[in-house]
From TrEMBL, chain A:
UniProt keyword Membrane present: yes
Record lineage: Bacteria, Bacillati, Bacillota, Bacilli, Bacillales
Transmembrane segment boundaries: 6-27
Protein name: GDYXXLXY domain-containing protein
Record InterPro entries: GDYXXLXY
Organism annotation: Halobacillus campisalis
Keywords assigned by UniProt, alphabetized: Membrane, Transmembrane, Transmembrane helix
UniProtKB/TrEMBL annotation, chain B:
Keyword RNA-binding: no
Transmembrane domains' residue ranges: 39-60, 66-87, 94-115, 127-156, 168-184, 190-209, 214-233, 239-259, 271-289, 313-331, 338-359, 365-382
Keyword set includes Acetylation: no
Domain DUF2157 intervals: 11-144
Taxonomic superkingdom: Bacteria
One Pfam family recorded for the sequence: DUF2157
Entry keywords, A to Z: Membrane, Transmembrane, Transmembrane helix
Name this polypeptide is given: DUF2157 domain-containing protein
Organism: Halobacillus campisalis
């Protein structure tokens, strides 16, 4: 047995777990806070425990806002840019398959393309914040609240998290 | 030998003059008194550990996230370091089992931390990290149990990726190739079979995640078959062949039921035909230069029949060809294993043919009754023939 390889392997695992924690707390310091409109849906996932499923208004992209000619395929990474409005909410300004430097007042979010909704002619994407974990047994109260506002922080390294859901 | 036993025995040896009493002391010194009561100590440690665990479990939701993370990391380190120490100095099995527990703690840690901090993944990345940890540990210890852990994690991760993200996760595939290297260097039959089964499962995920037609499986299984018969391969890799043949046999059975009128409409890629021709040609040449001249019979199953029409009947022919091939080869060479293989395949094929041809127009009870009789008669003749071969094979 190679002792140094063993200790390195153990150390890397510890660093990985710590890194998950550290980058989460670092987001508060370095990230930018944005507010999005949501429509909470159904709770509960067997793999994780209790949470509410959240869908954001910016996840429905009208096709005319799509900047590339080619339609993305399921599972493709897409970049959506949001901008703060007078109401305080951040709303969609454009979406494309490549990343661009965001202008002042704008924030770029990474998302995954899901499907093309022909009826409303929108692209459905997922920004990866569709699960908000909550204390056991409180799922119903949040769901019943209907439309909600999500406060989200976006880190410069692309990571994002929900701070609150009201 | 226990010390008490040795003390008694060695007294006699001194009396007999086999050893001197100073030599006896020296020998006894090597067998020093074992410390205390190992069983009691183990239970003590186990109880304290369990008490600690249940305490944490019942207060888990009340703890703050940082404390939770600290607890996970503490357990991770405790299990790894104790395991490593015991593995080196005391008992390999105990040390190894602690290390496996630590690996489980790491996996649980990834998902628990992910949940605490609202992480959402876009792929099977967490499984990849977990499997990679198992792989590195395998490189440290070279233990079968860790190989098993790595292969389970890779397969589970790939199934997860396929079912949740409709995607074949390539990093896991690369890790799988790494495992293949470990298997090549130092493997055994059991691990080889598990590896091959994992390969088959991942082939399914691969083909269906990318929306490819099922017939690509023929190509993937043919590759597995060829690898098992490579001239300079390790002997334990031979088990690949059995898994490949079994898998393609099942594919052919599916063809019998699913092909048919739709055969001609199966979309068809020239690339598939090109790849298949090359591989098949190579496989034929390979089987021709092998010392066993009958392995080409396996290759019958890998012939694609979905394009020509009447795919169901042709698939049946392949299955019959394979079964009869081994039966005849077995009788001619008086090789009872081959006869057994051919018999089982032949009975299965007959059953399938019977289902396929007679199910639609026969009364159900007559259908099962006749089928049962048919199989009974068939197995009677085959078994008699097999015993005959066995008897002739034995030296009289």
């Amino acid at each position: 047995m190679n002792r140094w390889l063993f200790y390195t392997a153990v150390a890397l695992q510890v660093i990985f777990l710590m890194g998950m924690g550290v980058s989460y707390y670092a987001m508060d310091r370095f990230g930018e806070t944005i507010i999005l409109e949501t429509q909470p849906l159904d709770p509960r996932d067997p793999f994780y425990g209790d949470y509410v499923t959240v869908r954001y208004s910016i996840e429905d992209i009208p096709v005319e806002m799509w900047e590339d000619k080619k339609e993305p395929a399921r599972g493709d990474t897409v970049f959506i840019t949001v901008e703060e409005q007078d109401s305080g909410f951040y709303e969609l300004v454009k979406a494309s398959s490549h990343s661009e430097r965001a202008k002042a007042g704008q924030v770029e979010l990474k998302a995954r393309f899901e499907w093309h909704n022909e009826q409303t002619d929108t692209y459905q994407v997922n920004i990866g914040l569709d699960r908000y974990f909550i204390e056991e047994g409180t799922g119903n109260t949040i769901e019943q609240a209907g439309d909600a506002t999500a406060e989200i922080v976006v880190a410069p390294w692309g990571q994002k998290k929900i701070i609150s859901l009201e | 030998m226990k010390r008490g036993q040795l003390e008694k025995e060695s007294e006699k040896w001194v009396k007999d003059g086999t050893i001197t009493s100073s030599q006896r002391d020296q020998i006894l010194k090597r067998y020093s008194h074992t410390s205390g009561h190992p069983i009691l100590l183990t239970f003590a440690a186990l109880f304290i550990g369990l008490g600690f665990l249940t305490f944490i479990a019942s207060n888990w939701s009340a703890l703050s996230d940082i404390v939770k993370l600290a607890i996970i990391i503490f357990f991770l380190l405790a299990f790894y370091l104790t395991g490593g120490y015991l593995y080196r100095n005391r008992s390999k099995p105990v040390g190894l089992s602690l290390i496996i527990i630590a690996l489980c703690v790491f996996g649980a840690g990834i998902f628990l931390t992910g949940q605490m901090y609202n992480y959402t993944s876009f792929s099977a990345f967490p499984f990849f990290i977990w499997a990679a940890a198992a792989f590195v540990l395998l490189l440290v210890f070279w233990e079968s149990l860790l190989f098993l852990a790595a292969i389970i994690l890779i397969t589970a991760g790939q199934i997860y990726s396929g079912s949740v993200y409709q995607d074949f996760y390539i990093p896991l595939g690369i890790l799988f190739l790494g495992l293949g290297w470990v298997l090549f260097v130092k493997g055994n039959r059991l691990l080889t079979v598990l590896f091959a089964v994992s390969y088959v499962i991942q082939s399914l995920v691969f083909v269906f995640a990318y929306g490819w037609s099922y017939y690509w499986l023929i190509l993937l299984f043919l590759i597995l078959y060829i690898v098992s018969h490579l001239p300079y391969g390790q002997i334990h890799l031979k088990s690949f062949g059995s898994v490949a043949v079994m898998s393609i046999f099942i594919v052919d059975i599916f063809q019998v039921f699913l092909l048919g009128h739709g055969s001609e409409t199966v979309e068809y890629s020239n690339l598939f035909f090109l790849g298949w021709s090359l591989l098949f040609l190579y496989a034929v040449i390979q089987s021709a230069i092998e010392s066993t001249k009958f392995n080409w019979i396996d290759l019958v199953l890998f012939i694609p029949v979905f394009r020509i029409g009447e795919g169901d009947l042709l698939s049946l022919l392949l299955l019959f060809g394979y079964s009869l091939g081994w039966l005849i080869a077995g009788y001619r060479k008086e090789h009872s294993e081959w006869v057994a293989k051919g018999t089982i395949a032949f009975l299965l094929t007959t059953l399938i043919a019977y289902f396929q041809l007679a199910w639609a127009f026969m009364d159900r009870s007559i259908f099962f009754f006749t089928g049962g009789c048919l199989l009974f008669v068939l197995s009677f003749f085959l078994e008699r023939k097999r015993r005959q071969v066995r008897r002739e094979g034995e030296p009289s």
